[in-house]
Protein backbone atom coordinates (compact mmCIF):
# COMPACT_ATOMS: atom_id res chain seq x y z
CA UNK A 1 0.00 0.00 0.00
CA UNK A 2 2.79 2.41 0.89
CA UNK A 3 4.54 1.63 -2.39
CA UNK A 4 1.41 2.53 -4.37
CA UNK A 5 1.05 5.87 -2.56
CA UNK A 6 4.73 6.62 -3.10
CA UNK A 7 4.45 5.76 -6.82
CA UNK A 8 1.37 8.03 -7.18
CA UNK A 9 3.22 10.89 -5.48
CA UNK A 10 6.20 10.47 -7.80
CA UNK A 11 4.02 10.39 -10.93
CA UNK A 12 1.94 13.39 -9.84
CA UNK A 13 5.01 15.33 -8.75
CA UNK A 14 6.82 14.73 -12.02
CA UNK A 15 3.69 15.81 -13.95
CA UNK A 16 3.54 19.06 -12.00
CA UNK A 17 7.25 19.67 -12.57
CA UNK A 18 6.90 18.96 -16.28
CA UNK A 19 4.03 21.43 -16.68
CA UNK A 20 5.93 24.08 -14.71
CA UNK A 21 9.02 23.58 -16.87
CA UNK A 22 6.96 23.85 -20.07
CA UNK A 23 5.28 27.03 -18.86
CA UNK A 24 8.63 28.57 -17.88
CA UNK A 25 10.08 27.67 -21.27
CA UNK A 26 7.16 29.29 -23.11
CA UNK A 27 7.57 32.42 -20.99
CA UNK A 28 11.30 32.54 -21.70
CA UNK A 29 10.64 32.29 -25.44
CA UNK A 30 8.07 35.09 -25.23
CA UNK A 31 10.53 37.31 -23.34
CA UNK A 32 13.31 36.55 -25.81
CA UNK A 33 11.18 37.44 -28.80
CA UNK A 34 10.22 40.76 -27.19
CA UNK A 35 13.86 41.70 -26.64
CA UNK A 36 15.10 40.58 -30.04
CA UNK A 37 17.36 38.02 -28.42
CA UNK A 38 15.77 35.24 -30.46
CA UNK A 39 16.75 36.88 -33.76
CA UNK A 40 20.29 37.42 -32.51
CA UNK A 41 20.53 33.79 -31.44
CA UNK A 42 19.32 32.62 -34.85
CA UNK A 43 21.90 34.82 -36.57
CA UNK A 44 24.64 33.41 -34.34
CA UNK A 45 23.55 29.88 -35.18
CA UNK A 46 23.54 30.65 -38.91
CA UNK A 47 26.90 32.34 -38.71
CA UNK A 48 28.38 29.64 -36.54
CA UNK A 49 29.85 30.48 -33.20
CA UNK A 50 33.34 29.59 -34.33
CA UNK A 51 33.25 31.81 -37.40
CA UNK A 52 35.51 34.83 -37.25
CA UNK A 53 34.07 38.31 -37.73
CA UNK A 54 35.43 40.64 -40.39
CA UNK A 55 36.71 43.04 -37.75
CA UNK A 56 38.56 40.24 -35.96
CA UNK A 57 40.06 39.03 -39.24
CA UNK A 58 41.27 42.54 -40.09
CA UNK A 59 42.73 42.90 -36.60
CA UNK A 60 44.65 39.62 -36.94
CA UNK A 61 46.07 40.65 -40.31
CA UNK A 62 46.70 44.20 -39.12
CA UNK A 63 44.83 45.96 -41.93
CA UNK A 64 42.14 48.61 -41.93
CA UNK A 65 38.97 48.55 -44.02
CA UNK A 66 40.43 50.58 -46.88
CA UNK A 67 43.65 48.54 -47.11
CA UNK A 68 44.23 45.42 -49.18
CA UNK A 69 44.89 42.31 -47.12
CA UNK A 70 46.35 39.87 -49.67
CA UNK A 71 49.96 41.03 -49.39
CA UNK A 72 49.79 41.21 -45.61
CA UNK A 73 48.40 37.67 -45.52
CA UNK A 74 51.24 36.31 -47.66
CA UNK A 75 53.85 37.97 -45.45
CA UNK A 76 52.36 36.77 -42.16
CA UNK A 77 51.65 33.26 -43.42
CA UNK A 78 55.19 32.75 -44.72
CA UNK A 79 56.78 34.26 -41.62
CA UNK A 80 54.84 31.88 -39.36
CA UNK A 81 55.52 28.92 -41.64
CA UNK A 82 59.28 29.38 -41.26
CA UNK A 83 59.81 30.32 -37.63
CA UNK A 84 56.42 31.01 -36.09
CA UNK A 85 53.77 28.90 -34.49
CA UNK A 86 51.23 26.70 -36.20
CA UNK A 87 48.49 28.33 -34.09
CA UNK A 88 49.29 31.82 -35.41
CA UNK A 89 49.59 30.50 -38.93
CA UNK A 90 46.15 28.92 -38.70
CA UNK A 91 44.69 32.15 -37.26
CA UNK A 92 46.13 34.08 -40.21
CA UNK A 93 44.68 31.51 -42.62
CA UNK A 94 41.23 31.66 -40.95
CA UNK A 95 41.35 35.46 -41.19
CA UNK A 96 42.03 35.17 -44.92
CA UNK A 97 39.14 32.72 -45.35
CA UNK A 98 36.81 35.08 -43.48
CA UNK A 99 37.76 38.09 -45.59
CA UNK A 100 37.43 36.04 -48.77
CA UNK A 101 33.93 34.93 -47.79
CA UNK A 102 32.95 38.52 -47.01
CA UNK A 103 34.38 40.00 -50.21
CA UNK A 104 33.56 37.18 -52.63
CA UNK A 105 29.81 37.96 -52.80
CA UNK A 106 30.66 41.62 -53.45
CA UNK A 107 32.95 40.61 -56.31
CA UNK A 108 30.22 38.41 -57.84
CA UNK A 109 27.68 41.26 -57.60
CA UNK A 110 29.99 43.55 -59.57
CA UNK A 111 30.41 40.99 -62.39
Query: What is the end-to-end distance?
Result: 81 Å
Rough outline:
elongated
Average pLDDT level = 81
Sheet/helix structural class: mainly alpha
Report the count of strand segments: 0
Report the β-strand fraction as a percent range.
under 5%
Structure description:
With 111 residues, the chain is an all-alpha fold. It is built from five helices and no strands. It is 82% helix and 0% strand. Helix 4 packs antiparallel against helix 5. The N and C termini lie far apart (81 Å). The model has no long low-confidence stretch (mean pLDDT 81).
Write a brief caption for the model.
With 111 residues, this protein is mostly helical.
Tags for this model:
111 residues; mainly alpha; 5 helices
What topology emerges from the helices and strands here?
Blueprint: H1 2-35, H2 37-47, H3 54-61, H4 70-82, H5 86-110
Helix pairs in contact: 3-5, 4-5
Amino acid sequence: MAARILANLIVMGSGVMLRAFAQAYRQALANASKNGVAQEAVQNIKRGSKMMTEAEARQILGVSENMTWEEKYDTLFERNAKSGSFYLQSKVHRAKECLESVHQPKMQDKS
